[in-house]
Amino acid sequence: MRITNAVVPVAGAGSRLLPSTKAQPKEMLPVGRRPLVQYVVEELESAAIESICFVTGRRKRAIEDHFDIDPELRAYLERTGRSELLRWLQFENTGVGFYYTRQSEQLGLGHAIGCARDFTSHEPFVVALGDSIITGGNGPPLVQRLMDAYHRTAGGCVIAFQEVPEDSVSRYGVAKPADGAPVSDVFEVEDLIEKPAPESAPSRLAIAARYVLPPEIFDAIDATEPGKNGEIQLTDAIRLLLQRGRRVLGVKLAHGERRCDIGNFASYFRAFADFALSDEELGPGFAEYLREKLSLPNTEPVRGD
Ligand code: UTP
């Protein structure tokens, strides 16, 4: 059976990006020309996802407005002789159907996914975190590879993993692969360890913001005890499925593929610079500006990817 539904949680407070996120969703911060969440939707579209459910919350209404067709804006651009700008609204004509549900209290990622239970109608579904962009790579889209791997799990879970430096593992959920260091791109996950100390981490493979989950995840979320700050963690619910004998497969990001997690200003600044530098029209000028600013010699190209 083909997987056609995706859940995109965007209800987090974005507190690490204050004050920018006081009155607007972090998912609407511009990265290059487009708001962050538009890249996520385009990624899902490229993997033939047909319906997306956003799990939203207070101060997140701009996301709904962004993906809604705006006839007034179109008419205004035409009336004022600027029809050439209509190309920037082409994304509105996507074939994807958008649905919205609210998470009234920020009780964690697991709880946010639980809010989309009715949307998924007892079918497996993709989860794509609304604050992370997957970029680069020349092969099939990551979400497509996760969906392909899902069919080998007989109703288990598939999780994307990125290799991170040893001193960063303590910021992530990390895989314990079944056979030590996995050599292939798809591997069996024996356990997941939340934010391990570098010396005790079972690998350097960190969960990378994309999943395929079975409908049974919802019962596992219901059965998951709240952890730190009273939050229900998705990783704990997946561990519960592992303990109940479900298979969990990991899919590594491919060569050249990268996850940009826009959770704090350091990663946001880097992502913005990367995307601005790879802008076809403005990238070369921006690179020139940076070269001057940093007094770099004009020998090496400055590029985003
Ligand atoms: P994060 O924990 O990185 O986002 O969640 P946050 O809660 O916005 O971060 P800070 O700590 O306040 O800065 C990862 C993803 O899960 C969603 C977020 O919107 C983000 O896409 N999320 C998180 C929810 O939808 N609900 C939650 O209760 C928590």
Walk me through this protein's architecture.
There is one protein chain. With 305 residues, this protein is an alpha/beta fold. The protein has a single domain, classed as Spore Coat Polysaccharide Biosynthesis Protein SpsA, Chain A (Alpha-Beta Complex). Helices cover 29% and strands 22% of the residues. The chain is built from 10 helices and 13 strands. A 9-stranded mixed sheet has the order 5-4-1-6-11-8-12-10-9. A two-stranded antiparallel ribbon has the order 2-3. A two-stranded antiparallel ribbon has the order 7-13. Strand 9 and strand 10 form a beta hairpin. The radius of gyration is 20 Å and the shape is globular. The mean pLDDT is 93. Bound molecules: uridine 5'-triphosphate. The site of uridine 5'-triphosphate has 20 residues, from helix 4.
Give the overall shape: globular
What's the architecture, going by CATH? Answer: Alpha-Beta Complex
- CATH class, please? Alpha Beta
**Order of SSEs, N→C?**
EEEHEHHEHHEEHEEEEHHEEHH
CATH topology: Spore Coat Polysaccharide Biosynthesis Protein SpsA, Chain A
Spell out the key features of this protein.
9-stranded mixed sheet, 13 strands, 22% strand, 305 residues, single chain, Spore Coat Polysaccharide Biosynthesis Protein SpsA, Chain A, two-stranded antiparallel sheet, binds uridine 5'-triphosphate, 29% helix, globular, alpha/beta
